[in-house]
Amino acid sequence: MKDLFGKALLDYHNGNYTEDLITSTNISDEDELPLPYLFRSFDSMPKLEQKALQLAKGKTLDVGCGSGSHSLYLQNKGFDVKAIDVSKGAVEVANARGVNSVELVDILGETATFDTILLLMNGIGIFQELSKTKSYLIHLKSLLNPDGQILIDSSDIKYMYEDEDGGFWQDLNANYYGELDYFLSYKGENEVPMKWLYLDFNTFKKECESVGLYCELVQEGEHFDYLARLTSK
Q1: Going residue by residue through the chain (233 aa), what tens digit of pLDDT does each one get?
Q2: Which of 150, 14, 67 is nearest to 83 (CA)?
Q3: How far is CA 170 from CA 64, 142, 173, 205, in A?
Q4: Whole-angstrom Cα distance, residue 218 to residue 148?
Q5: Which of these, 84, 117, 141, 227, could form a disulfide with 218 (CB 3.0-4.6 Å)?
């Protein structure tokens, strides 16, 4: 990985903001991801993110912390927060912005335990494929303290396959419709494509229950997105 995401965060943080990230998927056209949005305050966050932060309790792990906005909000509220990301640039920026504990580590490499685990901004995406969901959930469950919780969001993207007549053009022989190829570019460079997963709530709930996690629908967003709370049965 070239860590173009991290480079963009560093540019913005260091006052070198000249253009935004460009994202696309195998089923959607290019779109701009404004860098200022990645540094948003609590008031500028979507309702689902605000709700997740309000539900946080105890020692908290912020998975895929990015620039550290979620961690900083909780830290300023007196929480003991650990932030992790696989982007070296993101970790540098989160540290520079004042996140007390931030590490360059993949969630599968995390071993400490927590009262709250946050996976926001389509946190389910890091599972990559439906077939890998169980293994990720089993690992996340192992990181929970007694009475701990996982707060995670995603979207049902079935609407993206809808045609003008209200029908759906999904290939029934293909993989689960929420498995996408995700492309990112920045300042003329292209990142190595990656797998990114969107899960409808009912499918996600079944996956959770299969590994002994209770899955509660906390809140639905305005565009087929939702926030779920997972706890051990």
Answers
A1: 899 999 999 999 999 999 999 999 999 999 999 999 999 999 999 999 999 999 999 999 999 999 999 999 999 999 999 999 999 999 999 999 999 999 999 999 999 999 999 999 999 999 999 999 999 999 999 999 999 999 999 999 988 887 766 666 666 556 899 999 999 999 999 999 999 999 999 999 999 999 999 999 999 998 899 999 999 97
A2: 67
A3: 30, 35, 9, 22
A4: 16
A5: 227
